User: Fold this.
Amino acid sequence: MQKRVTVAVDAMGGDNAPVEIVKGAVEAVNEHDDLKVILVGDEGTVLKELAAYTFNKDQVEVVHASEVITNNEHPVAAVRSKKDSSIVVAQKLVREGKADGFVSAGSTGAVLVGGQFVVGRIKGVERAPLAPLIPTTKGFSLVIDCGANVDARPSHLVQFAKMGSIYMENIMGKKNPTVAIVNVGVEEEKGNQLVKETMPLLKACDDINFIGSIEAREIPNGWADVIVCEAFTGNVIIKLYEGVAAALLKKVKEGMMSSLRSKLGALMVKPALKKTLKEFDISRYGGAPMLGLTGLVVKSHGNSDATAIKNSIAQCIAFSKQDIPGKIKAHIGTKQSTPKA
Amino acid sequence: MQKRVTVAVDAMGGDNAPVEIVKGAVEAVNEHDDLKVILVGDEGTVLKELAAYTFNKDQVEVVHASEVITNNEHPVAAVRSKKDSSIVVAQKLVREGKADGFVSAGSTGAVLVGGQFVVGRIKGVERAPLAPLIPTTKGFSLVIDCGANVDARPSHLVQFAKMGSIYMENIMGKKNPTVAIVNVGVEEEKGNQLVKETMPLLKACDDINFIGSIEAREIPNGWADVIVCEAFTGNVIIKLYEGVAAALLKKVKEGMMSSLRSKLGALMVKPALKKTLKEFDISRYGGAPMLGLTGLVVKSHGNSDATAIKNSIAQCIAFSKQDIPGKIKAHIGTKQSTPKA
Assistant:
């Protein structure tokens, strides 16, 4: 018999909760026989949503949580004070081994704080990074770390490189993924203190495919599969990616709407344009894994629909089946990964 | 009689040197009676180029330099060893007071190194930042610092904020420009060590219009006129701006060329699109000032044409007439700007 994977889902988090979250969870169990979903949130609300669907009752459980953490709350304070929130209750299920993974489209801050302090890190992992996928002209890359832990040390970045490689290879199917560190130039002597100290450590790792520095200009061209940086830089990358794309598309639309001729042209261009631009939509890869924890935590985009939630749940299944925590433990334990920085 | 401004121009630097550089210099003197340009480079080559144009001979001088620093050379080593390069010879003219400003489309690294060590900083200025203008949906913003000095201290960022404000107000004509610091969130407690330490210092400055943190997502929306960051972050911002825009436009083109219908539409959309996209072209603001030096150093984009060079020279004229070095000296000397960090 196959091992059953259990995923706790925050039924109350995100712009489209609970409707799309519950719908996505049902779609996931209907696609995966070996999956059990625990929907965490207000029991009455969740049961009412569930009533609309047909599914194997064995595969869905509802765990009541009376509170919700909103995006406007201070994450640390909220996780501490709202013990009965859907995020904290669900993450406790992971810590206690009752769930293998956790999916939320709610407060990123609370998910990250809860990941560190409620779920807990794998032994030997110094920091648990958030690693969203970004679109590139070649496909996608993983940017690790975009989380809340700024001011990282070289040893953290080395662990990020290893965890990111394991994720890309085993979950995203990229064989022997290339790893690069974000830098201000590709020359040997370039970089800030952190990059200069990290560089020789990454070079010494024999369990990753390290290719050196990557300039930010080349990130959208997909020059590396795993892009290592500390979280301040990662945040700038992810948010600027979104911001520049949105501003530029606004300009494209303005141009298209500026004359009768261009408006007619726009009508003809639109269907083809929609398709190529969708390939470059950052929210398409909404489910950002938080790695290095005893179970997988997936932070789904705030505006996730049922499909996005279903895909995030599928990530948790793969994560558990591939025993990513076991693989991380094995690689983090190697000599090169715990240098005295 | 008006004060005459003298600008030294690197005739040998950039993809289009010497043709476009010499042409731009001639166009500048033909537009500005009070301008003198010193073209620095191989005398024979420059004189041959000049022979094609009509201009007031009093306004153009050629100073011979037998060497050229290329983009492939290590900047520090090149500036040290090539004493007779166009960059070093021209920057010496600024140091000796024979020129008020310097324009180059050549090696960015060599221009920055020469700025620090050949031209020299204004007394009291701790670091000379490179501050390119970037397009936004509202117009443009100044990103300071995007230079070579990574690992800045809080007191450096405070000086960047002041110098950037002076430049935007006096050269770019933005009245009381808003200043923001790049951060991972807008909440008070967010930020890395550097941002947290710099924040109260910026708040205490009464000579800038500080509005707090800016997330990278909002940079393309023009939320602040002066965007303060240390050079590693600034480099990521500038280069990712270019990279994402290029990748996205590639996708737009792909979409437009994907079917007969979309190709016909593209023909109709093209003229209008060209216009709006030009407004968002980062190379349009090719002349990035390096501030805090005794004379203005303008790093023009490597692919600068005559118009770009002419515009960079015009920046030097305004810089000198507005006595920016005097204004910087006055503000850098204030109490808030030299905190013990």
Notes: The two ends of chain B are 46 Å apart (CA to CA). Chain B touches chain A through 65 residues (CB under 8 Å). The longest strand of chain B covers residues 35-41.
